[in-house]
Amino acid sequence: MLSALLRINARTGNYVPLAPFLLEILESNEFKRANPKNASLKPLDMEYVIKAPANYPKTKVYQETLAEELVYLLGEFHAIMSTNIAFPEMTIPVVFMLKRYLKKGGASGKVNNQLKTLVEKIEVTRQWTEKKRRNVSFAPNDRAEVEAFLDGIPITETPIGSWMRLQKKVRDQKRKEIEMVG
After folding, report:
1. What is the per-residue pLDDT across 87-124, written as a single tens digit (0 to 9) for each?
2. Which stretches within 104-158 are classed as H helix?
3. How many CB atoms lie within 10 A of CB 144?
4. How many domains does the chain have?
5. Which structural domain range is residue 53 located in?
6. Radius of gyration (C-alpha) of the chain in whole angstroms
């Protein structure tokens, strides 16, 4: 469902506020577990799983899979929005929530590292956008100019967009490995 909304967001250019729904995952029971069970389960491919098998919840593998999916979807959402003139303002609540979660202790080390990397990429892109905004000579009420801001720049040339291009390659490679095993 969220992937479909991301595609709508990307193709129409309209802002669909997906971040609050994604951030709710951090408040789920899976992320409140400080010590999930270690299990020798193969990773899930969240693209094809609607409901996790009964032996996955409460495990480290499941927590890390959810975190990876969360980081990927938040990264993709922010990459789509990275050429929007309001990107710095859009990211304030997301960065705040992620930093607050990490400050509380977060989850496992791998999950925390993924979230820290996402925060870093969002902040680098925020700074990049702010630098580009310094050169504008139009007012916020000039809708045509606001819409044209960074219009010719591909998403993959933004800091988070180039990072997401790499994440997609890694994800596709993992998906091939999972399909070969499964």
Report:
1. 999 999 999 999 998 888 767 778 889 999 999 999 99
2. 109-133, 143-148
3. 7
4. 1
5. 2-181
6. 18
Q: Quick one: tokens of 92? A: 């304030």
Q: Which residues are CB-contacts of 151 (< 8 A; sequence separation ≥ 6)?
A: 83
Taken as a whole, the chain contains a residue count of 182
Helix-helix angle 109-133:159-181, to 10 degrees: 150
What is the distance between the alpha carbons of residues 36 and 17, in angstroms, rounded to a whole number? 31
Place of tokens 């959402």: 77
CA–CA gap between residue 160 and residue 162 (Å, rounded):
6
Q: Torsions phi, psi of 25, nearest 5? A: -60, -35
Q: What is the pTM of this model?
A: 0.88
The one-letter amino acid at 139: A
Return the closest-CA partner of residue 90 out of 18, 7, 168, 9: 18
63-89: per-residue pLDDT in tens?
888 888 899 999 999 999 998 888 999
